[in-house]
Amino acid sequence: MVVVKKSINFIAVLVLALFSMFSYGDEIQHKPGNKVDTAEEINDYIAHHLKDSHDFHFYTHNESGTHYSFPLPVIVWTSNGLKTFMSSEFHHDDAGKVIVEKGDVKLVKLHSKIYELESGASTINFDEHHHATNAHKVLDFSITKSVFGMLLAGILMLLGFGALARGYKKGKMIPKGFSRVLEPLVIYVRDEIAKPNIGEKKYRKFMGFLLTVFFFIWILNLLGLTPLGFNVTGQIAVTACLAIFTVVIYMFSGSKDFWAHTLWMPGVPYILRPILAVIELVGFVVIKPFSLLIRLFANITAGHFVVMSLIALAITLKVSFGPVVSTGMSLVLSLFIMVIEILVAFLQAFIFTMLSSLFIGMAVEEHDDHH
Amino acid sequence: MYNLIGAGLIVIGGGIGLGQIGGKAMEGIARQPEAAGKIQTAMIIIGALLEGLAFGALILGK
Fold first, then answer.
1. Taking CA atoms, what residue in A is nearest to B44?
2. Are the beta carbons of B52 and A295 separated by less than 8 Å?
3. Where do the V-ATPase proteolipid subunit C-like domain residues begin and end (chain B) (predicted)?
């Protein structure tokens, strides 16, 4: 019985992994009318997937060129005030050809960014570096795919942890259903990450941030592996924001000892103290958050890039090895990398939380000894 | 071209570093299996710090 149950679980996981791989494959092949077969085109599609977009694209039928996607709202602040409309008005155009007129403002979409044409211009012009000459970027508050992903993660967290909290409120000490998965993880973050790094006395104040960041990153990393095709934690703006949260928290909760040790290190010759202060300050304000944000961004981007490149093997190797061998190779390799990616999704969330709590621990630590 | 050579150098450096960390951690765990958990956590942290450096260099070089 146990064996049957286990193998059912295994098969379910396998089917899920395969399903998401097919969906990635669709994304590679989504050019209307003709199939993708050159290396440049594949690179284009991978770059397109790694970027944020204004609509939610699932699948394009190759022969008819019909897109199966749903639009997301565009909210932009133009020179003539706030404009809102659905991204379907751009008709999947990404080269600045379709012009949307709202009042007296003309908007185009170019490489997933929205530009406003200067007054009097009717088409977008480019210089030799393919930069627009008669249009400028607008302040974009749109619900893009990444924003949608973050909202989805927020709702999932609210549902999951809301249920867990309601269970505790009713006085049930043993959670039921999905809460049983969440409780050990919360305890893991508390006992293995927060307590050893921040210390028994002070860890409680930071649990809210650490738990939120852990589950936020983890859920978004896992959403990135589903057929929905999110790449939220692979957007540098998202990871930068998370890193800035960490910096603000440890800078504002720094103890007296932390500032003394940073700005006027006791126990070193007086001449060295200003130099050390500069080094320490740069370390805390620039280098630590920079390494936090680059690590998460680069890991997730590299992961998505590798998965899509391995799926593209089925197309690039078809000429030299035949369809069966190339498809088999890309299937086996990308399944292997997908499984690794599930591990990386957890590991990166763990590392981010771990290093955040390590930095917070450094800042709140109080020294009893005097050098 | 040059940034590809640079990327290669970064990967070599990072590989040597990760190898050192992993190898020493294995040695430590083999000597003291009861400390495996602690060694693993420390190993992952140091690995992550190294990774931050290597990725930082890769992104800057791009």
1. A351
2. yes
3. 5-60
